[in-house]
């Protein structure tokens, strides 16, 4: 069994006030708590306590949390990670606000992943009894939920093997040099039925390329783009479509320089989904399908 889902992304920001303005008012997440110099946010369609943690002091990824269904599975993942050669440590209840006991794993590429089974339940803004389709006081882009993260690794094949063998992820799409000499450049992996819950691309170890929020459809992507213009958000790419995952997207930066994405579309996967392969000669089309051009910033800026 794979892990349940991506639960949270914890990042550093250079200026907390600017970051809160971006994640709360521009993206529309709700501030759940401010504690210990950190700000915890959730999106309106999420029922767990938080999905994004902001910590002042720099830029980049602190850790990614994945929710696991049972304590037994947590112990299994811990053992498998150790057998894989990764460093693991136990995380105590409350070490992460509102999150129960867990296991921290340092990936072969250096990023920290934390697994946990319990997190405080807050419920969605629309509730579970005769819910409205969206909340009347939705702000900004009105992001629904955290969707996925893309990290970089000097050896993406090793990290792909980790997510597959240790955490039970499957591969939806792979980007390779060419079929005659198949060196892995990027991999898109899922733990449920989404197109991806994690992606790994060739790049520096221990870095984040972006994390993404789900929106309902293409018109909501365009609406988000309008909000980004109103709020002078620095847009990296889009609105456009990916070849890989078939998603519709805008990439943009928070005020600290962490890259975010709003994402929709794609397809459903599942345990019988056959892996799709892209070759390096089609890389630009795979990433940005319509313009078939990838700007230099997109392939060189990691945080
Ligand atoms: Fe993405």
TrEMBL record:
Keywords: Aromatic hydrocarbons catabolism, Dioxygenase, Iron, Metal-binding, Oxidoreductase, Repeat
Domain VOC: from-to ranges: 5-118, 145-265
Any Pfam family: Glyoxalase
Cofactor dependency: Fe(2+)
Species whose genome carries this gene: Mycolicibacterium gadium
Top-tier EC class: oxidoreductase
Enzyme Commission number(s) of this protein: 1.13.11.2
UniProt similarity note: Belongs to the extradiol ring-cleavage dioxygenase family.
TM annotation in the entry: none
GO MF entries: catechol 2,3-dioxygenase activity
InterPro entries xref list: Catechol_2-3_dOase, Glyas_Bleomycin-R_OHBP_Dase, Glyas_Fos-R_dOase_dom, VOC_core, Xdiol_ring_cleave_dOase_1/2, XylE-like_N
Summary of subunit composition and partner proteins: Homotetramer.
Record's catalysed reaction(s): catechol + O2 = (2Z,4E)-2-hydroxy-6-oxohexa-2,4-dienoate + H(+)
Protein name: Metapyrocatechase
């Amino acid at each position: 069994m794979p892990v349940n889902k991506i639960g949270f992304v914890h990042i550093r920001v250079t200026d907390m006030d600017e970051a809160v303005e971006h994640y709360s008012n521009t993206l529309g997440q709700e501030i759940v708590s401010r504690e210990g110099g950190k700000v915890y946010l959730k999106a309106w369609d999420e029922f767990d306590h938080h999905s994004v943690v902001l910590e002042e002091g720099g830029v980049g990824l602190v850790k990614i949390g994945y929710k696991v269904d049972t304590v037994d599975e947590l112990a299994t993942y811990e053992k498998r990670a150790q057998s894989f050669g990764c460093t693991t440590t136990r995380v105590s209840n409350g070490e992460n606000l509102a999150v129960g006991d867990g296991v921290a794993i340092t990936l072969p590429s250096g990023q920290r992943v934390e697994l946990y089974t319990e997190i405080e339940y807050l419920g969605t803004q629309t509730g579970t009894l005769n819910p409205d389709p969206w909340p009347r006081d939705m702000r900004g882009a009105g992001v629904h939920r955290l969707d996925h993260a893309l990290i970089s690794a000097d050896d993406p094949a090793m990290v792909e093997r980790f997510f597959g063998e240790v955490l039970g992820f499957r591969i939806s799409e792979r980007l390779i040099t060419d079929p005659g000499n198949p060196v892995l450049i990027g991999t898109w992996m899922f733990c449920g039925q989404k197109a991806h819950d994690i992606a790994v691309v060739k790049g520096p170890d221990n870095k984040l390329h972006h994390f993404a929020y789900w929106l309902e459809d293409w018109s909501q992507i365009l609406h988000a783009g309008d909000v980004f213009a109103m709020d002078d958000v620095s847009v990296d790419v889009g609105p456009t479509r990916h070849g890989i995952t078939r998603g519709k997207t805008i990439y943009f930066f928070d005020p600290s320089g962490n890259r975010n994405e709003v994402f929709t579309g794609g397809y459903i996967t599942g345990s019988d989904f056959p892996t799709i392969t892209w070759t390096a000669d089609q890389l630009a089309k795979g990433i940005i399908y319509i313009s078939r051009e990838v700007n230099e910033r997109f392939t060189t800026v990691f945080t």
